[in-house]
């Protein structure tokens, strides 16, 4: 049996595996807990290596619900991190675009009157 998570959500992936595991039960060849766990973890892919290592190293036997919850939490963190990475990329591209636009529009540095700094008084803002 070779089942991969690929583009499925964790819930979709586990539902798909449950259907397969139920088919083994239907033909009178139920899989052991260990076999189910191995097949479940093997199909997750590299994004889940930390969870796979953690679950594989546990001395106890986590319930299917606990595994499901751990995988969903990890999936949520992955999606959240991808969103942050995407936002950082967009911000970097925007900053680069503004810098490029600024340099095109400003071929020479601006000159300020010599007394500019002497007359400059910073504004003070206080938090209330």
TrEMBL record:
One protein family per Pfam: Retrotran_gag_2
Superkingdom of the organism of origin: Eukaryota
UniProt xrefs under PANTHER family: PTHR47481, RETROTRANSPOSON GAG DOMAIN-CONTAINING PROTEIN
Protein name per its UniProtKB record: Uncharacterized protein
Organism: Ficus carica
